[in-house]
Amino acid sequence: MSENLTLGDRLRIARKTRNLSAAQLAQKAAISPSYVQKLESGARKAPPSLVLALAKALHFGPEVLTGQPYYGEPEAEDGVHAVIPELRRILLCYDTPDDLDIAPRPLPVLASEVDQVATLRRDGRYAPMGPLLPAVITELSHIALSGRNGEREEAFGHLARAYRAVNSLAHKMGHHDLSGTALERVRWAADRSGDPLMQFTAGYLVVGAMLRQGAYMSARRKLFALRAELERLQPERSYTNDALAMDGALLLKLAVLEARENNPEGVDDCLREAESVARLAGNRDSLAYEMSFGPTNIRIHEVHTLIDVGDVEQALARLNQWSTTRGQEWAPPASTVGERSSHHFIDVASAKLAVGDRAGAFTDLRRARKAAPNHTRFHPSVRETSAALLRMDAHPSNELASFGRWAGVTTT
Predict the structure, then answer these.
(1) What pTM did the predictor assign?
(2) pLDDT tens readout for residues 320-330
(3) Which of 219, 292, 322, 401 could bridge across to 297 with cysteines, CB 3.0–4.6 Å?
(4) CB 392 within 8 A of CB 361
């Protein structure tokens, strides 16, 4: 499909492909026929949960509606897709890696490079991250598979982290088949790392993939099983700080699941329990096993889940309620990892658009871009919000038109 098609265009094409009327699709997705028509015309913007519901009703993957992966001038400029073919080959040959002309670099050097990759991933800097992955994965694979016994488990642990970066890159760029393969490699390496919390990390990532595909029942069972196993491994609930952060991250994922199933009471229960876990951990923002948890991420999830259940006014009210400066909204502190911050601003931009605050929506899109340009540039919601702003403005400013071009949206 053309990169200039909106979600509404793609929805209409997909509906006609399935020979469904707007009324028939509405019945399958549990919304009104007029809502379907507004989505197709661009008069309404679909939240992620509704995109998943529509895709499920149409028996398509969500990427059919979002249009990913995007190929156009923005992608060519960043070169983000260039490494994808090599990563496909490397992940296919995971247990029989390419021969090396020289010995792998020492494990501490490779571990340091994985730390760099992890930092780039958390900040959504996919363009500089991608080229680092093939070499570090290949070298770690050799050590993990045939190195000295004392190094193998550690190498598998670092390899799981590198595969996680591939999973994130592929998912964010819309290469969902590669994302799924990378996820299986994370699980494979984590199981061999000898680190139980690395195995929980793999399970957490699996749940995220389930949510993206609308597999809510399976995701719920998986989350409950992970939390039960975590409690079993921590005697008398004497959780380490890493285990507390892991439990908190699982609770936040469960809150998202409750929001996707339109259960506000369940969302609130999960968020309040997450706050209790955060207090046990000293109410500090942390990055245990590369997962953000703490007061900041709880607030980000509170806003996200309110938007997901359609209560955008309450989501925006929270930002004012939490603010310590009169007339300013709460925002994640500067120390928050880039991708978390940009995701928050993308959500808020969508909420402001829904209540008619076009200027505010554009301000938050710009804030998202500043926090994590790569993540923002290729996020489906950014393209839809940008397209809506351009469509609503008969004479868009040069700044808005320029942002639209940067995000891959044109006014023609």
Answers:
(1) 0.87
(2) 999 988 878 99
(3) 292
(4) no
